[in-house]
Design a protein that fits this description.
- This protein is an alpha/beta fold.
- The chain has helices at 14-17, 20-27, 64-75, 96-103, 120-126, 142-153, 203-221, 223-235, and strands at residues 2-7, 32-37, 50-51, 61-62, 83-93, 107-112, 129-132, 188-189, 192-193.
- Strand 8 and strand 9 form a beta hairpin.
- The protein is elongated and about 70 Å long.
- The protein starts with a strand and ends with a helix.
- 24% of the residues are buried.
């Protein structure tokens, strides 16, 4: 799978790309991540990519020409143009379902905003999939791009150490319950014991215990998920 990231701050990515599972996936050729500096398409000697907004107002706006031409140039580098994702607090809110949808794509082109955002013509011309990582505002789209890469990479075959590692994750594959508690050695620490059922070796009992724990945790911490699930079931014909 290939990711292309267009950003004004390419220096934010080397440390992130050089760590953990993502780094190993890149080394093994399972994932390719290419970082592109939007200033390369500025078209002037000062590499200016932003300007004051028409009509007045605070801050600066990213200009249409370098962004559109940058995305088109990057798309031409591969056999497939890729799906363009514009990271924006105005986009559809990211969920695991959307991550699974994106993971089915062979290539994603991630466009990172800054300042007061993009000239509207960027959206009108490129028709990107606008995605928000939450109902809050970041300094730019770089961290949001990393969130998408991190979540999508987990679903790329062979990236995780065990093929079933992501099946029981919270929100995965339509699962609307939070993941149950996990334990490892030692069996006792400061008076806190590992639940006996996990030590029995009875897989059916353990699976049942985990389902019950998952439901209880969801009811306590995110009852809204249960309400959404019930509402969805009621809407079925």
């Amino acid at each position: 799978m290939r990711f292309d990231v267009l950003t004004l701050f390419p220096g934010m990515f080397p440390g992130y790309l050089g760590q953990s599972l993502l780094h190993k996936a890149i080394q093994r050729g399972l994932v390719e991540v290419c970082i592109h500096d939007l200033r390369c398409w500025a078209g002037d000697k000062h590499h200016k990519v932003d300007d004051r907004p028409f009509g007045g107002g605070p801050g600066m706006v990213l200009r249409v020409q370098p962004v559109v031409e940058g995305v088109e140039a990057v798309q031409s580098l591969g056999e497939r143009p890729g799906r363009v994702i514009l990271l924006s607090p105005q986009g559809r809110r990211l969920t695991q379902t959307i991550i699974e949808e994106l993971a089915a794509q062979p290539r994603l082109v991630l466009l990172c905003g800054r300042y007061e955002g993009f000239d509207q013509r960027v959206i009108d011309i490129l028709q990107p999939d606008e995605i928000s990582v939450g109902d809050f505002v970041l300094n730019g789209g770089e961290v949001a791009a990393m969130v998408i890469i991190d979540a999508v990479v987990r679903l790329v075959p062979e990236v995780l150490g065990h093929q079933d590692s992501n099946i029981d994750d919270s929100f995965s594959r339509g699962n609307r319950w939070l993941e149950s508690a996990q334990y490892t050695r030692p069996r006792e620490y400061r008076g806190h014991q590992v639940p006996d059922v996990l030590l029995t070796g009875h897989h059916e009992e353990i699976a049942q215990w985990r389902r019950e724990q998952s439901y209880q945790k969801t009811r306590t911490r995110r009852s809204d998920l249960l309400d959404e699930q019930a509402s969805s079931a009621d809407e079925q014909p």
